[in-house]
């Protein structure tokens, strides 16, 4: 994740003013207001400006009254900073490889050629029953080894004939 610098006191003040203008709160005198602001700054001072923006948006969306310090911390706990370029690239590569494997496995189940794939894919396909490893170490699709999967057909019902039981005792 991208390291984000902590918000300045001015940024915290801006977000608290936004909340005060948007959400109603109980009236306090100037001295109580300064102490209250000091508590919010001490608790929120370690978070980034982006996290505080998230908190302010969520507070307006969630609460009917100005949030307590605890509610502010609960909202910030749900904030997820944007991923770094490296993390995004790694996730996209993993998604691509996973999609390629899933398509390959479907093709194998349908009897398509195995191709040049990692050994791990072959082992997984054997474990999942899509392929079979032969005694010479080679692999073959089960669709080719046993034929494609056929739909279930119930056996024909033969009527019971009690006369067939006579003479068996």
Strand order of the largest sheet: 1-2
Main sheet attributes: strand count, strand direction, barrel closure: 2 strands, antiparallel
| Estimated radius of gyration | 33 Å
Considering DSSP H and I runs of 4 or more, what fraction of the residues is helical?
Answer: 40-55%
| Percent of sequence in beta strands | under 5%
Q: Which parts are unreliable, with pLDDT below 50 for 5 consecutive residues or more?
A: none
From the N-terminal CA to the C-terminal CA, the straight-line distance is 82 Å
Summarize the structure.
With 169 residues, the chain is mainly alpha-helical. 53% of the residues lie in helices and 4% in strands.
What does it look like?
This protein is mainly alpha-helical and 169 residues long. Strand 1 and strand 2 form a beta hairpin. Helix 1 packs across helix 2 and helix 3 packs across helix 4. The protein is elongated and about 105 Å long. The model has no long low-confidence stretch (mean pLDDT 85).
Question: What is the secondary structure topology, with strand pairs?
Answer:
Blueprint: H1 9-22, H2 30-44, H3 49-62, H4 69-77, H5 85-109, H6 119-127, E1 131-133, E2 139-141, H7 142-145
Antiparallel strand pairs: 1-2
